[in-house]
Amino acid sequence: MRLTVDAPAGEIVVLGATKVAAGTQSAADAATLGRPAFVNGSPGVISWHADGSPLSVLAFTVAHGRITRITAVTDPAKLALMDLPDPAAEAAPAGAGRRVSAP
């Protein structure tokens, strides 16, 4: 398992399922709202802070029914360049994710 985070300070890479799970749980705890999305064609999640500003965009690589890689963008400057939905808008029905292009 590999987690790659594009953060303001640069790219961070975390290897190993236990470490990746701990890192993603910490990020999930910071999010107020999350919504499924397709990120560059891959399943993913968009999350926001309580004030409605974007927190992260995650894309999942899935192989043989398992997540093998998570790529996250948390850099506010890069998030600002993405066409993200309004978190206050009504959530999409289950199975219908927003399509997002990430750098």
Question: Could you explain the architecture of this structure?
Answer:
This protein has 103 residues and is of the alpha/beta class. The protein has 2 helices and 7 strands. The protein has a 7-stranded mixed β-sheet. β3 and β4 form a beta hairpin. The longest helix has 14 residues. The chain is globular. The mean pLDDT is 84.
Structural class: alpha/beta
- Could you estimate the helical fraction of the residues in percent? 10-25%
Shape: globular
What separation lies between the terminal Cα atoms?
A: 21 Å
User: Can you count the helices?
Assistant: 2
Mean pLDDT: 84
* H-E order: EEHEEEEHE
**Total number of strands:** 7
Beta-strand percentage?
Answer: over 45%
| Strand arrangement across the biggest beta sheet | 2-1-6-5-4-3-7
Described by strand count, sense and barrel closure, the largest sheet is: 7 strands, mixed
Give the C-alpha Rg: 13 Å
| Weakly predicted, low-confidence segments | none
